[in-house]
Amino acid sequence: MIILAIESSCDETAAAVSRDGREILSDVVYSQAEMHALYGGVVPEIASRQHAEKVTLVAEEALRRAGVDRRDLDAVAATCAPGLIGALLVGANFAKACALALDVPFIPVHHIRGHIAACYVADKTLEPPFTALVASGGHTVVIDVADYTAMTVLGASRDDAAGEAFDKIARVLSLPYPGGAAMDRLAQGGDANQYRLPRADVAGAPFDFSFSGLKTAAVNLVHNAAQKGERADRAALAAGVCRAVADSIVPRVVEAALHCGRKTVVAAGGVAANSVLRARLAEECRRRGLALCLPPLRLCGDNGSMIAAQAYYEYLAGNVGTSAQNCYATLPAGESPAAQEKAGK
Q: Do domains 2-115+302-342 and 128-299 have the same CATH topology?
């Protein structure tokens, strides 16, 4: 089954062509990061306009690189939730129009499920059940993946996502957007023990996260130093923040896996590219006897491959949309956009 998939939930316009989900024939990504860097973060209206300008070109390039004619497509897929609603609508409406014109099914895909599916592309032998961490600019969630489309959220951030905290702290450190990668590079030369930074627990919710306190503490540290005519040690603070994020995430993910009786942990999303988090996950999973799947860095950020991979399994499960399929700015990973539409929500 050959699928063309579109991803446009935030600031990347991406398209990929896959065969039976796991064989990626092409993957094209147009990043808007340089444009949004002028504003220190994503501007939704600019993101939507850029998607509208680039989606056709990106899709055509994906087909060209795959050596696939549009008449060879068996389905067209797109991210329909969650994300910036305007950005989602651009990609979804383009994909729905393609599916309608080609008389093939349209498959709506959940963005977080897509991030998990990036691990299927990275490891062809990976199969559910397992425990998944999805950590990105907008999401930090721990999910029990019982099957390809049967998922239960075990824990999530009560406030800021880890990636959002990275971006906001990076801004006060005068680092370029997106901040996560820049923080990771800066942290390599820093002393993670120099500053005391908070790690928050959520009472009664052992698998939930909270990163707003970490963000506020780091921002205040930089501002307080500036008010005294001093300058915070940027590398040490970056190292401390990376360690604090890993300290918050790793134990919860591992305990969630053991709680559910899973033998494998997977990590996905942009924050899963952080070198400190990857090393700590590998160390703790090895210590606790758990297998670990970490996708390569190119599959951690938003991309079309992950949407194409998940679309295949959504199709097999009957989660197919229509030309009336809507998009949703928020939607739990346990619910598919197709089912949400059928329920009339």
A: yes
**250-262, pLDDT tens digit by residue?**
999 999 999 999 9
Quickly name the fold that domain 2-115+302-342 has.
Nucleotidyltransferase; domain 5 (3.30.420)
Q: Is 42 left (phi over 0), alpha (psi -120 to 50) or beta?
A: beta
Residue 200 makes CB contacts below 8 A (sequence gap 6+) with: 209, 210, 211, 213, 214, 248
Q: What integer best gives the mean pLDDT of the chain?
A: 95
266 beta partners? 132, 293
User: Is residue 31's pLDDT more than 70?
Assistant: yes
CATH fold label, 128-299:
Nucleotidyltransferase; domain 5 (3.30.420)
Q: What is the pTM of this model?
A: 0.95
**pLDDT on residue 41:** 81
- Which of 229, 325, 321, 242 lies closest to 281, judged by CA? 242
Measured between alpha carbons, how far is residue 21 from residues 83, 91, 230, 312 in Å?
23, 19, 54, 5
